[in-house]
Amino acid sequence: MIKFSLRFLILFLFYSVYSSAQIKKIGVPFITNYNPKTYKAASENWDVLQNSQGMMFFANHFGLMQFDGVRWSIVTQPANKSMIRSLAIDKKDKIYIGAQGDFGFTVQLPNGQYSYTSLVKLIPLAFQNFGDVLHTVVYDNEVLFFTNDVIFIYKNNKIQIIDSSTNFDEFFEVNKELYVSDPLKGLSKLKEGKLTPIKNGTEFAKLTSRQLFQTPNGLLVLTQKKGLFIYKDEVLKPFVTEVDYLLKENQITVAIALSDGYFAIGTRQSGLIIIDGSGRLIQHINKQIGLQNDYVTNLKVDKEGNLWVTLKEGISQIQISSPLSKIVASNNSETKIYCSQIYQNKLYIATDNGLFWLDWDAYKNGKNENVHYQYIDGMSENVWNIGIYDNVLLAFEKNGIFEIKGNSAQLLAKTDGAWQGVIMTNHPDVLLVGGYTGLYLLKKINNSWVFQQKIKGFAESSRVISIDANENIWIAHGYKGIFKIKLNKTFDSVLSTEFYDKKDGFPSSLFLNTFKIKDQILFGSTKGVYKQNPTSKKMIPDPVFKKYLGMDSHIRLLKPDNKNNIWYVSGENTGKIIPKENGSFHKEEQAFRKLRYLYVPGFENIQTTSSGDVFFGTQDGLIHYNSEKNKDYKSKYKAVISEVKCIIPKDSLLFSNRYDVIKNKKAKTEEDFCVDLPYANNALHLSFASLWYDDADGTEYEYWLEGFEPNWSDWSLQTEKEYTNLPENDYVFHVRAKNIYDVVSQEAVFKFKISPPWYRTLWAYMLYSILFWILIYAIIRYQKNLAERERGQLILSQEKELLRRSGELNEKRLELEQKNMAIVRENLENTISLKNAKVASNTVNLIHLNEILLSIKELVLQIKKENDLSLLTKINRIIDHELQGDQHWNEFEEIFNQLHDNFMQRLKNSFPELTPRDMRLCAYLRMNFNTKEIAPLLGISVRGVEDTRYRIRKKLQLPSDANITEFILNF
User: Fold this and answer.
1) Is the Cβ–Cβ distance between 745 and 690 less than 8 Å?
2) Cβ atoms within 10 A of the Cβ of 729, count?
């Protein structure tokens, strides 16, 4: 039984006064069913609670079951392994468990495991044999465990026992007061460990009460089979409701108070019933319209306002706080919804199985059980569209155009398929119908639409049509582009056709749409909203929609309502753009995130009404929206680590909440919890989830392994991550979630450390250091010994080498001395030869000179004797011949070449232009003779020597600043 206090009731009543939020009466809230195959435990669940973190717990026949939004697991069991019947939780998240023949508490350890402690050992032996603990209640600093036989009060590690003379019937907590009912005394108040009957409490003895609530009108009493009563001023009176027949026939099992003064009542045979404070029916949710079982065992509202319903078979989550609901009837059979329309108090829906209607007034007033979808005869094919045209309801179907009258359909025109109809802007009696292969024309005649003809000149599929103020017809073809058509005055043929696609400014020629917003034609593309530039006729982005919808999404639908709001489907997001008084706009999307991926692609449909009802046609039926229903979409929630295990060895768990899978339950503080792993276990598998239960399948996650990865991952639906071959390091795994409303959770972390392999540990490095220095010492010692040995060998070898080289040097010295002596001897011989040659030459010259002198003497004597002057000429000729001295020069040249490295020959080879006289002058210059010394040798004057030097300079091609003597000496 769920408990309720006045403190919370006052809060709820206060909220109901100042808030317009109410549980929706129209439609059925979204329901998520979890069957035993899903959570893999027993079918029966008896209680439910939520801890401060947001984790859900259930009292299952197999034990305490936990749900983290992704995974279900049994986390602990009572000591006797019996089924759990009741749960309670204190401010420190200690969970108290009432089971069959056992009760106690459980706490979660830092490694994720839950440790259960039984309190039965504190009970005297005589009272240890008891049955089911039907209620567990945390009351101030006490915990009460209620059974039909006895009440146990746990306080300060002691247990007080309240025994029953008969049997207790039920236990209640109301306005911080405790009540107990029994078949004899009726209703009694439990205070300070004693039961005190209330005045006229025996009146309750016959009622079999199931829940009590404090209300402004008194104590509201819910009985098992007799309906509701009010206890006020010590008088018990029936409280009449609209659902008395349901409550009395189907047995109340449990009830809780909701916000806004509403009450949720669970029954044994008819599911869940929600009423307001006046007893009016708000919702009746049973197996027929979505609940998986009609036997309700308990109820709980979580932090997000979702109602959790535990059942005899399974668990259901009902999103009673959502402004969205499904229009579901008792014989619900429709599938894909293409369009909807309210006409003459009937709701019509166009589906892929035909056209249906239901009584809308009866449905929205809560009479769902008597409301059924009615089939319109003759329309069993795909009905693409329905619309009201001048107060006439028309349907456009695969076989043609129909007029709907009440429960029947009348064929107006048989065509090869009709998509939709649009009234001509300036001719309200002319209806243009887009078909599979062109356009059709209908006219209003005598208050009825009459088919005229198919319009000539256009044969394209015309599913999306808009008509501007000048009656230009804009047709969007999903795979080609946009057609602009102008009809003739009689509307029977096309006057002109213009075509626009990517070349005219659209980002693509595919998936274009056309819409009419405030008399302006707009175009939806794969990259935002476009309009036509009136001057250039090019398609350009619309600045207003660019600001609010961007240029990255596929604009699938734009539709205005009667409040100047613009509804849209952009990409997978649905929303509305709301105008403000200052001329700007506000975009609202969060309320419609549940509609993602529900539309029929290409047939997105939003239908608004003047009364504020909004309908969305989807693949999952017709969905209704109430704009007056407010919901907080920014609630904080947490991500959690579900399980961590090593891949090697296989499935070695490090952190897990699954029951008794980790034997080591050594308790540490959660802040200090860090798993230290050997290097062999450096491959991990981590599972994670978020404690958000509204469309949990759409929640995305991002993660980051600090110490290994530089940044967060991309968002994805993945709830598991593996890491392999992690190097040694200290790691922190971070994970956070983002729900369908784009609210990011608080992150969860898991710390662990990978130790290095033994060969990379500190001790190993110390050993390596010691071994290194030993090795260095050994190497130094070895090198030293080797050096000493090599030094001795080197000294010995050097001595040997020295002796050998000394001998060789002596030999070389002797050899050099011998060579030098030979060279000296040879030089001396050459010098002696040269001197001998000079002596011989001088001797010859002397002899020759003596001969000449003798010859001249004879001639002189002869002149004296004969006084013949011609002999003087002869003497002069002899002297000239000797001065010319060719014979002496040749001898001189031979000796000169020997002394000067064949100078004459080299000079002649290098400068062949030189004459013999030039060669002689060069030889004398080589011998460093001056001009005065050279003149008599050549037999010319000093001036003649200088002229000859000048001619030689030219032949040697010497520059003017060069010294000819230096050149000859260095040649």
Assistant:
1) yes
2) 15
Q: Residue 13's pLDDT band (boundaries 50, 70, 90)?
A: very low
Paired residues of 639 in beta bridges? 690
- Nearest to residue 681, comparing CAs of 643, 635, 728? 728
State how far the alpha carbon of 207 is from the alpha carbons of 150, 442, 647, in Å. 21, 68, 59
Tokens of residue 897, six digits: 């070449």
Which amino acid, residue 564?
A: N
Whether 839 shows a pLDDT value over 50: the answer reads: no
**C-alpha distance from residue 158 to each of 70, 150, 153, 197, 717 (Å):** 39, 16, 8, 26, 48
Phi/psi at 323 (nearest 5 deg)?
A: -80, -5
**Phi–psi pair at 364, nearest 5 degrees:** -70, -15
Cα–Cα dist 675/731, whole Å = 10
> How far is Cα 46 from Cα 758, in angstroms, rounded to an integer?
53
Q: pTM here?
A: 0.77
Q: Please state, in angstroms and as integers, the Cα–Cα distance from residue 47 to each residue in 100, 320, 359, 422, following that order.
A: 14, 19, 38, 56
Please compute Rg for the chain using Cα positions.
60
The residue among 135, 56, 73, 74 whose CA lies nearest residue 103 is: 135
Neighbours of 512 (CB within 10 A): 26
Count other C-beta atoms under 10 Å from residue 109's C-beta. Answer: 18
- Give tens-digit pLDDT for 738-766: 999 999 999 999 999 999 998 888 888 89
Neighbours of 29 (CB within 10 A): 21
Residues 6+ apart with CB under 8 A from 702: 712, 713, 714, 715, 716, 735, 736, 738
Structure tokens at 600: 């029929």
* Preceding peptide of 649 cis, ω within 30°: yes
Q: What is the pLDDT of residues 240-252, one digit of tens each?
A: 999 999 999 999 9
Which token pair is 829?
């011989």
Whole-number Å distance between alpha carbons of 150 and 162: 6
- How far, in Å, CA of 411 to CA of 198, rounded? 72
- Give the residue from 671, 657, 667 showing the smallest Cα distance to 55: 657
Count how many residues are written for the chain. 971
